[in-house]
Model the fold of this input.
Amino acid sequence: MLSTSRSAKVTANTNRSEVTSKPTRAAKERLTAPDLEPATREAPRAIVMRAALSGIAVALLALSASAQSAKDVKGATPLVAIQNEASPKLIVDPPIPEQLALGRVFIQYRTENLRILPVFGKAALDVSPRVGHLHYYVDDQSWPIVDTSGETVVLVGLAPGPHKVRLELADSIHRPIPGASKLVEFTIPAPQGQHN
Done:
């Protein structure tokens, strides 16, 4: 890095200030060497302009990032009731064929407008967004299996042949949510090498 020693004279009045500098003789010789050109007064302005433009760009970026509210990014807070909440929906995929061929039933599902949580009781009815859980019935089972994991339903040990599983969303006091149930029908194949 090239260094120069300078003596500076600063004069000021109420309207302007001025800085003048006079390079020393050694600095003049270094600046006028055959492979160097003397510094110009434009260099500091260019640096100041680049710094100003960089500062403006950073400020604009921060301003655009702050334009989105937390609600815009994360959704409504679960601490305040949502007016006119949409009805919960249950979306169910058919059993995964590769697993079904092995005698295992994997049923994937997801919900909309309802969070699957292990929360029960009357007080949870007022929580918003809504909380609930999944009930499912295998074949003609009269009592539901309750699932609060929100994970894939896995069934093993079913006999070969036709089966059905009814899945339904339920609220925190186990009442089925109207319009939020699906029936899945499938056939477990006979193991290889066995005949009916």
